[in-house]
């Protein structure tokens, strides 16, 4: 059996072998292997593919000495319980009197059985929009402060959410709600964010059913207003014949930290909306400026890359010309040496009166003239090469200066870009 979950905190994996089944996919209790695993972790994850999870194993298996230990509730503590999306049915008392810090329900869940999360200490729960039936006492005796009943729910049975701390109940559909105290006996603390605060922000769909308004609190045109020096007030409420009923303590927001408050005035909302609009506009402007800077940066970078290519080409040409120059200088030196040697031989021949030597002198003069012509040509080539080298060097210097100028410009743009980005980060914060 392949594992379905691994806790990095406890390094424990839950598999199908950790559970007992009434039939395929229908879990009823822990197996012996699961009981051993429970001692190693407080995170419970049921296997994907599970169809239903049922409780009250102890009543139907009285001969099992471990029947109470095999149940998922009965005083067991869970940091987290995860119900896979394959589960559609949570049966009667499945987690009865467990201590649960956090629960993740199946997104395919249609049925919550009676007493399923009775007295579990839950502070919050999200009901999926597939849920149809919530049976009696399903969430009784928890610490829920807010609950949203999805539009899909058709029935809510008696005492389903009684004895919680519900200051806000939102019912999105039109379910059949049992007349016997579905939301009764609430012990509520409500901390609005502003004074005055709106009646439609709390209660049962914006209805409170206060029996009376005590001194220190006034009701005016859909708003409640605290007197300046009042810390809090206590009220009894009963909406719709005991359906939503209990006691509520409301705290003056002017006396307490905003971190614990739960409401906003219309004026504050408008001011925040205006600030958000201004910030959004400023952020948009900065984003456009950053885009322009990035485009310009890209354009300048392209120019720099092109100039670098030209510079490399000029350097290559300059190196070739240097080699040619060195070669020509060496040839000129050789020719000059030969000319000097020939001139010396001519002078020696002039000093002799030999006809053969005169003929040789004439020949040498012809050779000398040829060498002088070649040397003149070499010097001409040398001058031309030297000029080309100087021209390439001048071009290289210009390109290097231009690259330096463009790089400085690019650095400036990057500084401006960083500044704009920081402005956006500051505004987001």
Automatic annotation (TrEMBL):
Pfam families: LRR_5. Keywords: Coiled coil. Residues 269-423 form a coiled coil. GO terms for cellular component: cytoskeleton. The keyword Coiled coil applies. One of its GO terms (molecular function) is structural constituent of cytoskeleton. Transmembrane segments: none annotated. InterPro entries: LRR_5, LRR_dom_sf. The keyword Mitochondrion does not apply. PANTHER family: COP1-INTERACTIVE PROTEIN 1 (PTHR47357), SPINDLE POLE BODY COMPONENT 110 (PTHR47357:SF1). This is Leucine-rich repeat protein. It comes from Criibacterium bergeronii.
């Amino acid at each position: 059996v392949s594992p379905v979950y691994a806790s990095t905190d406890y390094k424990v994996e839950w598999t199908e072998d950790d559970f007992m089944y009434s039939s395929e996919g229908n879990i009823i209790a822990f197996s012996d292997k699961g009981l051993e695993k429970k001692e190693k972790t407080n995170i419970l994850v049921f296997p994907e593919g599970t169809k239903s999870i049922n409780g009250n194993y102890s009543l139907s298996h009285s001969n099992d000495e471990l029947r109470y230990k095999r149940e998922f509730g009965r005083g067991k503590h869970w940091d987290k319980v995860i119900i896979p999306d394959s589960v559609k049915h949570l049966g009667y008392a499945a987690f009865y009197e467990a201590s649960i810090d956090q629960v993740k329900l199946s997104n395919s869940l249609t049925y919550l059985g009676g007493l399923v999360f009775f007295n579990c200490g839950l502070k919050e729960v999200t009901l999926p929009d597939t849920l149809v039936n919530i049976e009696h006492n399903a969430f009784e005796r928890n610490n829920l402060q807010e609950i949203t009943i999805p539009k899909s729910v058709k029935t809510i049975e008696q005492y389903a959410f009684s004895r919680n701390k519900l200051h806000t109940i939102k019912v999105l559909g039109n379910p059949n709600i049992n007349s016997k105290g579905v939301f009764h006996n609430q012990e509520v603390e409500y901390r609005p964010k502003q004074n005055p605060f709106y009646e439609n922000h709390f209660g049962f769909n914006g209805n409170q059913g206060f029996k009376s308004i005590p001194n220190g609190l006034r009701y005016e045109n859909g708003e409640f207003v605290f007197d300046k020096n009042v810390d809090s007030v206590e009220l009894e409420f009963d909406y719709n014949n005991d359906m939503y009923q209990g006691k509520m303590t409301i705290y003056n927001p002017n006396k307490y930290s905003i971190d614990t408050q739960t409401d906003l005035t219309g004026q504050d909302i408008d001011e925040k909306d205006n600030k958000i609009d201004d910030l959004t506009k400023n952020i948009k402007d900065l984003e456009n400026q950053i885009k322009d800077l990035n485009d310009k940066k890209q354009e300048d970078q392209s120019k720099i890359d092109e100039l670098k290519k030209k510079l490399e080409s000029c350097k290559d040409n300059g190196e070739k010309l240097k080699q040619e120059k060195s070669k020509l200088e060496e040839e000129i030196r050789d020719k000059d040496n030969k000319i000097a040697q020939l001139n010396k031989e001519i002078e020696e021949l002039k000093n002799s009166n030999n006809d053969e030597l005169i003929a040789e002198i004439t020949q040498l003069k012809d050779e000398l003239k040829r060498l002088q012509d070649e040397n003149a040509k070499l010097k001409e080539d040398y001058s031309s090469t030297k000029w080309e080298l100087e021209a390439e060097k001048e071009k290289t210097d210009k390109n290097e200066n231009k690259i330096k100028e463009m790089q400085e410009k690019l650095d400036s743009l990057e500084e401006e870009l960083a500044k704009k980005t920081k402005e956006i980060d500051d505004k987001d914060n």
